[in-house]
């Protein structure tokens, strides 16, 4: 199912091989009408927040409206397939994310091969999730939560944005390393899971930091740690899970993808515009406030990240025996 890594990188790098005259001609004309930017999740989640920030920047930078379109379902596969089957002209784009790397292993049969059919355009940001619990859970540290979970095996509900979602895999990795038994409760998106966490319908969730940071700051939910390799500047007092469980690391990523065969000059226009946004002090500060770290660079660099994450999470999926439904 997976495309060989060398061939994938060749596709990403080869996007810039068009003749110079044609490149400039198309680049000068693009974009000449509104652009659709599809998000594979419901509104208000981390992907949606990042998409709207970058969509606003691209609208202002390129002079055409970038319309955010939410197409949730099947772990982003529905939205991805819509984009892959769209004309490769730069007017239908996709918010690429960690779920796409996960799905390469999670789904045995797809109507597309993501690494072959979705061209990496630009990385936007990388962000940890937050290990969040309902305030009624008697734990204020990761160590205390592990003790509580081991004392109540199979009685603690762990929500997620859906089977195979970033939060689900972050939770499965936690269960695997901590040796605890949590009951997975999948939702149709991050927002409804957050709502039920606050209401006490579930006890634990690994939401994106961007979607949950305000709830953390206002005390509506209790955050025990962040899931990245280092502490987050957005919540510097929160430890990492790895400070309790060495080797644990789960960070999502966000970027832009386009259908294979999208003209190199269009990819170049978009990549330069995104990178300009990541260098803009105001947008950069906003991403930092959301707990995200900018991911500037050429398409090939973003493509390598997708390939690396595909390999990493494939191992977790196979170990935990996770299957799509």
Features:
D-Maltodextrin-Binding Protein, domain 2, 2 domains, globular, 325 residues, six-stranded mixed beta sheet, alpha/beta, five-stranded mixed beta sheet
Class inferred from helices and paired strands: alpha/beta
**Main sheet summary:** 6 strands, mixed
Strand and helix order: HHEHEHEHHEEHEHEHEHEEHHEH
Helix content: 40-55%
The beta-strand count equals: 11
Number of domains: 2
- CATH superfamily heading of the largest domain: Bordetella uptake gene, domain 1
Distance separating the two termini: 18 Å
User: How is the CATH topology of the largest domain named?
Assistant: D-Maltodextrin-Binding Protein, domain 2
Shape: globular
Q: Numbering strands along the chain, what is their spatial order in the largest sheet?
A: 2-1-3-10-4-11
Identify the CATH class of the largest domain.
Alpha Beta
What is the typical, i.e. mean, pLDDT?
Answer: 90
The percent range for strand residues is 15-25%
Low-confidence stretches: 14-21
Question: How many DSSP helices?
Answer: 13
What does this structure look like?
With 325 residues, the protein is an alpha/beta fold. It has 2 domains: 5-127 and 252-320, D-Maltodextrin-Binding Protein, domain 2 (3-Layer(aba) Sandwich); 130-243, Periplasmic binding protein-like II (D-Maltodextrin-Binding Protein, domain 2, 3-Layer(aba) Sandwich). It is built from 13 helices and 11 strands. The chain has helices at 5-14, 20-29, 46-62, 77-84, 98-106, 114-117, 142-151, 166-178, 190-199, 209-217, 264-279, 281-289, 299-320, and strands at 35-39, 66-70, 92-97, 118-128, 130-133, 157-160, 183-186, 204-205, 222-226, 251-259, 293-294. Strand 1 (35-39), helix 3 (46-62) and strand 2 (66-70) form a beta-alpha-beta unit. Helix 8 (166-178) crosses helix 13 (299-320). Residues 14-21 have low confidence and may be disordered.
């Amino acid at each position: 199912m997976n495309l060989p890594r060398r061939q994938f990188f060749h596709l990403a790098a080869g996007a810039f091989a068009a003749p110079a005259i044609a490149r400039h001609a198309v680049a000068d004309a693009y974009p000449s009408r509104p652009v659709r930017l599809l998000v594979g999740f419901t509104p208000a989640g981390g992907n949606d927040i990042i998409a709207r920030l970058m969509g606003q920047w691209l609208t202002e930078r390129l002079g055409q409206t970038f319309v955010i379109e939410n197409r949730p379902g099947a772990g982003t596969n529905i939205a991805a397939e819509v984009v892959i089957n769209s004309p490769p002209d730069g007017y239908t784009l996709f918010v690429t994310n960690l779920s796409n790397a996960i799905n390469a292993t999670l789904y045995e049969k797809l109507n597309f091969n993501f690494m072959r059919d979705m061209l990496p355009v630009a990385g936007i940001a990388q962000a940890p999730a937050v290990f969040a619990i309902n305030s009624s859970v008697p734990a204020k540290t990761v160590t205390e939560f592990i003790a509580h979970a081991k004392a109540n095996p199979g009685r603690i509900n762990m929500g997620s944005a859906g089977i195979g979602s970033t939060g689900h895999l972050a939770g499965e990795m936690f269960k695997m390393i901590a040796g605890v038994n949590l009951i997975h409760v999948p939702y149709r998106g991050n927002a409804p899971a957050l709502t039920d966490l606050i209401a006490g319908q579930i006890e634990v969730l690994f939401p994106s930091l961007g979607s949950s940071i305000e709830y953390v700051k206002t005390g509506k939910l209790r955050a025990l740690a962040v899931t990245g390799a280092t502490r987050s500047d957005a919540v510097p007092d929160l430890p990492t899970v790895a400070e309790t469980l060495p080797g644990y690391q789960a960070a999502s990523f966000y970027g832009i993808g386009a259908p294979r065969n999208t003209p190199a000059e269009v990819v170049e226009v978009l990549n330069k515009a995104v990178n300009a946004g990541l260098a803009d002090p105001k947008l950069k500060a906003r991403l930092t406030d959301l707990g995200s770290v900018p991911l500037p660079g050429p398409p090939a660099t973003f493509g390598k990240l997708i390939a690396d994450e595909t390999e990493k999470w494939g191992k977790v999926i196979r170990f935990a025996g996770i299957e799509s439904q």
